[in-house]
Amino acid sequence: MLKFALRNLLSRSLRSFLCLMGLTIAIAGMVGLFSIAGGLEKTVSQTFGKISGIVAMQPGAPIPLFSRIPRSWGQEISQIPGVAIVNPEIWSRVNIIEGKPVISPPRFLFGTELPSRIQLKKGIYRDAIYAGRFLSLEDQGTLNAVISRQIAEQHHKQVGDTIDVNGQEMTVVGLYECGSLLLDIAIILDIEVVREITRFDSESVSCFYIEQNGDIKNELLVNQIKDHFRDRELASWQPAALALANASQSNLLKDLMNTIDQTLKGTPTQRPEAQSESAVSKLPNQTGNMNTQTEKPAQAESALEVRSAADWGDRLETFTADLDIFLGLMTGIGVLIAMLSIINTMLMSVMERIVDFGILKANGWSNRDVMLLITAESSLLGISGGILGGILGLVAIFIVNWKFANQVHLYASPGLLLFGLVFSTFLGISGGLYPAWWTTRMTPIDAIRRG
Amino acid sequence: MIEVRNVTKIHQSGETEVHALQGVCCQFPGQAFSFILGPSGSGKSTLLYLMGALDLPSSGEIYVQNRALSTLNQTERDTYRREKVGFVFQNFNLLRNLNALENVLAPFLPQGVSMEQKQRAEDLLKQVGLGHRILHRPNQLSGGEQQRVAIARALLKRPLLILADEPTGELDTRTGAEIFQCLREMSEQYQTTVVIVTHDERYIRESDFILRLSDGKIAEDNAINL
Question: How far is CA A109 from CA A56, A91, A93, A206, in A?
């Protein structure tokens, strides 16, 4: 039966080919689109799997780059039971490397306090050194830097070379590679050097990396640190658009931006009245997207946001789940077109072969047998489309990952490929059902007489 | 033995009712060669298809081996056509995507073809003179060859009944004679009842049973064993 079905498809090779291409491209598109979310998930799991400690930063800041917190709080955190080491960090975006503007992929100056850094039991960057050495106490106050393999290869640098970053001549003492797009983006220096280069406020840091001593569970330690800073005042980070909207006279725009901001942060929308109770920030000279109007947080809120790797992972998982819905909708359009294409192809094919079906019925084929033949043909289209679509999607992903190795990482899991194949087969079968049913409406003699 | 009892068939053509058969009563003897004759539109093919359970009569009954066809359900009718009846059509009605051998085996494709069936199909094709054309597609065969394939297809199931609708209608005289010769030999060998609809009376022999129809009615009903 399958052989017969295959021959029927091959006898109308051009039409079958076009239908197959429609399905193939739809499935390849689906694999490609969902590989974005897959790549993000894989990158996130690869990245946060390497981070054993927890990070304390400004509430609402999406990443440490946008966070500003008092430097002095590090000392207080180190006194909390369960904390082994507190490492202050400063993050700043690099604008120019070797005279060339840096746009994409982004690069960051990462200033870390070396005395505490070298005490960490597990140092993400230190453990990923593959050439040269990591920073030591001797590098304090110097422009000695450790850079990622990506940056080194992009600018053809090796250990011992100098690299011009934002107009500063830095000496490369080590190269690292974590294998994550989110980590292999930093130029690591002594924290005070970065502070000076970026004119970072002397009383602030971006965040604290906290290594636990293992005496208490992560969740408990996170809550203890939050509780410790519950009575403090610190401005919540807000994006520039929201800051502009808050300055605007338009309540509508302000409300809209606030809603978007709070939704992204995953916290309830604040009532406009609460914003009028804002206080002036304690932190002067803040750079970046800090809101100049600061709020006095509700008493129950902590002035520090403390996240473990698992928290980051959960947040990004929620994001990728939302992304999946969006990607699903986009894929749906392609899939719908592919399905209509199958129905059209099969219907045309069935109408042309009405006499054949009459002959088969005259020779004892039941309606079910004829329906099976037609759905076998459409299933073959579906399976072939699924296989070819998966292969095409994989090739496209490979090319994108190869061509834009430093910017993106797409990943199609075996589960996604299997889903693509099953879904394509389902499309094929369901696309053939209507034409198959259509043939059962005629008696054999009606079908033969059509010829 | 096939018995047709007061069979009427009314087709709907738009808003008009076409009375293809009007109270036809007749019998076709078993293991014999029978002809249904008559002008176009006389209801010959309609009667043939009703005997093959390809269609249902509007009223009346057809008995094959004493079983009323109207009592068969859909599955039984499919089985009847697959196992008891072989059809030979005027325009051969072979499946163009299948070769000669596969066309002969077509009735059994859904159930799966056994080696024994395949061997028998090859033997039948050799018997009808197509041993060297087994793997040829219909478009590679002449009209006479295609009709021989159709005969082999009808015979593979060792049918009780072969129903042929103008089997030589698209063939030249010589080929038509060969096809009739082939049908007669096969029916004799396989002890099969053959009912043929035709305009051409040249191939009728004295021993054949003849039913002549006109306007859906029997014009000659006394023609048994002319």
Answer: 19, 6, 6, 12
Nearest to A364 among B81, B95, B96 (CB): B81
Please give the Cα distance from A17 to A297 (Å, whole number).
63
- In this complex, is the C-beta atom of A4 within 8 Å of any C-beta atom belonging to chain B? yes
Residues in chain A: 451
Closest CA to A80 of A236, A211, A204: A211
Per-residue pLDDT, A156 = 92
Tokens of A148: 């990622």
Name the residue among B49, B91, B98 with its Cβ closest to that of A451.
B91
Query: Could you tell me the pLDDT band of residue A239, with boundaries at 50, 70 and 90?
Result: low
The whole-angstrom separation of Cα B129 and Cα B144 is 11
The sign one gets for the Cα dihedral A66, A67, A68, A71 is negative
Taking only the tens place, the pLDDT of each residue in A345-394 is 777 777 777 888 888 888 888 888 888 888 888 888 889 989 999 999 99
> CB pairs below 8 Å between A and B: how many?
69
Closest CA to B53 of B99, B101, B103, B2: B2
Using beta carbons and an 8 Å cutoff, which residues of B are at the interface with A? Answer: 49, 52, 54-55, 74-75, 78-83, 87, 89, 91, 93-98, 102, 106-107, 109-110, 153, 157
Q: Report DSSP letters for A117-153, one per residue.
A: HTT-SS-TTGGGEEEE----GGGTTS-EEEEEHHHHH
Q: Which residues of A touch B87 (CB under 8 A)?
A: 362-363
Any long-range contacts for B106-114 (C-beta under 8 Å, 24+ apart)?
B106/A359, B106/A360, B106/A363, B106/B153, B107/A363, B107/A364, B107/A365, B107/B82, B107/B153, B107/B156, B107/B157, B108/B82, B108/B156, B109/A1, B109/A4, B109/A365, B110/A1, B110/A365, B110/A366, B110/A369, B110/A372, B110/A373
- In single-letter form, the type of residue at position A206 comes to S
3-state SS of chain A: helix, strand, coil percent to 5? 55, 15, 30
Return the axis-axis angle of helices A309-352 and A354-362, rounded to nearest 10°.
80
Task: Supply the pTM of this predicted model.
Answer: 0.63
pLDDT digits (tens, 9 = 90+) for A104-158: 788 999 999 999 999 998 888 998 999 999 999 999 999 999 999 989 998 999 9
User: A11 and B49 in contact by Cβ < 8 A?
Assistant: no
Chain A CB contacts of B159 below 8 Å: none
Gap between the Cα atoms of A13 and A10, Å rounded: 5
Interface contact flag, A364 B109, Cβ < 8 Å: no
Chain centre to alpha carbon of residue A224: 30
**Sequence letter at residue A102:** V
Q: How confident is the model at residue A284 (pLDDT cuts 50, 70, 90)?
A: very low
Please, which residues have CB within 8 angstroms of residue B147's CB and are 6 or more apart in sequence? B88, B92, B167, B168, B171, B175, B179
Regions in chain B scoring below 50 on pLDDT: 222-226
Cβ–Cβ contact A369 with B under 8 A? yes
pLDDT surpassing 80 at residue A262: no
